[in-house]
Amino acid sequence: MDPDLLGPLVAWPLMLLTAWSAGEWVFRHWNVPRVCAYGAVGLLLGGIGVSQNVASHMAQGFMANVALALTLFELGYRINPRWFRHNPWVLAAGIAQALLTFGAVFWVGGLFALNTDHRLVLAALCVATSPAAIMRVTHELRSAGQVTERLLHLCALNCLVAVLLLKLVVGYWHLETSGDFGQAAFNSIYVIGLSLVAGAVFGFVAPLLNRIATSSNSTTVTFAFLVLVLTGLAQSLHLSPLLAALAFGVVARERRLMLSHAQRNFGALGDVLAVFLFVYIGSLLSWSGLLAGLVLGAAVLTARSAAHTLVNVSVARVSGTTFRKGALTGLALMPMSAFALLLLEESRLYGFDLARDSLPVIVGLLVLLDVIGPLVTQRALMLAGEAHPEEA
């Protein structure tokens, strides 16, 4: 059957239903994270062309940003900035592992004869950790403990540093191609600052709207609508909706806005959007040159995981944990595909032409991480003894 005959109103719902069914099956029978199946189905459908031309690319991108923004809001809500002050070694580990990862991946790119621009983009993206995969896995396991908390805080730090590094790369590219220092500055540090300010403003506005809510469900809807508006506003102003949502969550926590346990993951809305996000991410990846890219992907994955593990093991004792838990924390930080790819798409839409050319270079890495990243996170949390599946 010609996929175009299905129409956008039928094709995407069928794709999402297929992915959701596959996720439930692999989770129930093999205890594999659902998001692994979601990404694999998206990759399969994208490879055979089913996901192409079934809906506006802009509309799909906006929905994917909303889905990830909801997750980043929740991640931000679980971040306690005071913890970094009480245990500065965790903050030091986050910064050190980001810089070491950037340097290691940049070096590996040189071994594969990539040009400097592509190496910079690849290195900046590899600093990121996917909050969508991390949050979905921790929810499925009902994970709680020292490794889980470090994982969430380091994930947020990695996302922040990755955006900063990529914006600096974008600014450097604009400066190199146009010589316009003003445009270069706007596409780097100012975008980050304005995005954080926009998220913080929504954090201060939220209590006013939350007074209208009369139940747990209506509170969830209130925050979902605010994240939706924030995402649209950030995209319209060419800011980063991902950073804005993260800042919104952090300020909401500091303002003592209470989210009940039932509201975690935004309920059924969060589940549906999570399926869409990972199917969409998988569908963006091309099979063209995949086999050649897998070698580079494996090398980069090794360097990235080694950097995470080395730093977390090095600071384990002084930061109040064991070497074993430090190693498991480093391994659990493996997922990156969702955040990295949306960050790349965001840069492309805002005029960073190199982003489009960089995607084929990293497709092998993204495919590997889309499938095995969440599985490694799940196993690391289980080995740490912080998973409680019997309560799920």
Give an overview in words.
The chain contains 17 helices and no strands. It has 392 residues and is an all-alpha fold. It has one domain: Na+/H+ antiporter like fold. The chain has helices at residues 3-6, 8-30, 34-47, 57-77, 81-86, 88-111, 116-126, 131-141, 146-178, 181-210, 216-236, 241-254, 267-284, 290-314, 323-332, 337-349, 354-383. Helix 4 packs across helix 11 and helix 7 (116-126) runs antiparallel to helix 9. The mean pLDDT is 84.
Keywords:
single chain, about 400 residues, mainly alpha, 17 helices, globular
Give a brief description:
With about 400 residues, the chain is mainly α. It is built from 17 helices and no strands.
Taking all Cα atoms into account, the compactness measure Rg is: 20 Å
Reading the helices and strands in chain order gives HHHHHHHHHHHHHHHHH
N-to-C CA distance: 40 Å
- Second-tier CATH architecture: Up-down Bundle
Tell me what portion of residues adopts beta-strand conformation: under 5%
Total number of strands:
0
**Shape annotation:** globular
Largest sheet: none
SSE map:
Elements: H1 3-6, H2 8-30, H3 34-47, H4 57-77, H5 81-86, H6 88-111, H7 116-126, H8 131-141, H9 146-178, H10 181-210, H11 216-236, H12 241-254, H13 267-284, H14 290-314, H15 323-332, H16 337-349, H17 354-383
Helix pairs in contact: 2-3, 2-13, 3-13, 3-17, 4-11, 4-12, 4-13, 4-16, 6-7, 6-9, 6-14, 7-9, 7-17, 8-9, 8-17, 9-10, 9-15, 10-11, 10-12, 11-12, 14-15, 14-17, 15-17, 16-17
